[in-house]
Amino acid sequence: MNFVKGINTIIILLLILGCGQSNQKNALQIRNDYIKQQVTINIQPFADIQDGDIQFAYKQLKMVYPFVNLKLTIQLPQSAYYKERNRYRADSLIIFLNKQTPKQHVTIGLTSKDISINKNNNKDWGIMGLGFCPGKACIASTYRLSKENKQSQFYKVAIHELGHTQGLPHCPIDSCFMQDAEGGNPTNKETCFCEKCKKILATKGWKFE
């Protein structure tokens, strides 16, 4: 009788251990699948931009997203240059960056040059940044930012455009990074992503305190 009880106890322990191992494997698989779904953000600085602006944007992004890769600087593509206004076409820059962006990656280009797009009846509308929603690439420029707090504003422009690539539309909340600039520079009013935008980004691996 004691022998039978002993055998039963061993079987129960083995079953418990087996379930534990199975649960651990399942949890590990879920974690690995989740990591695979997350993208890597590639920061692609162009040769014209100052290193201090690059490093500030990089360090700030690393605080809210775990997978950020800072690439070596490259030259701006001449195919995007708009000679008549001495500007670079933002959509052409995104197309250029798109071609260099592998699967599960998003690239943000950083420049100090003036950039522009077609908007309504204006064929050359100057902007601070551009990102497709959703998309694999975006661009941010320091050209139209205030000199006093340029780096802070630049980070806000960059994270705004990255937000678009993650599927975030413009937000009606003034303090949110995703508010529409509407031709101006509202970055000094922006403090963070709003709670709704945070929830969406959190599902994609972004982390906020």
Write a structural description:
- With about 210 residues, the protein is α/β, with parallel strands linked by helices.
- About 40% of the residues lie in helices and about 20% in strands.
- The chain contains 5 helices and 9 strands; from the N terminus they run αβαβββαβββββαα.
- The protein has helices at about 1-35, 50-60, 90-100, 150-165, 195-200; strands spanning about 40-45, 70, 80, 85-90, 105-110, 115-120, 120-125, 130, 135-140.
- A 5-stranded mixed beta sheet has the order 2-1-5-9-8, sandwiched between helices. It has a 4-stranded mixed beta sheet with strand order 3-4-6-7.
- A hairpin with a 2-residue loop joins strand 6 and strand 7.
- Helix 2 (about 50-60) packs across helix 4.
- The protein is globular.
- It starts with a helix and ends in a 7-residue tail after the last helix.
- Mean pLDDT is about 85; it is low at about 1-5, about 10-15 and about 25-35.
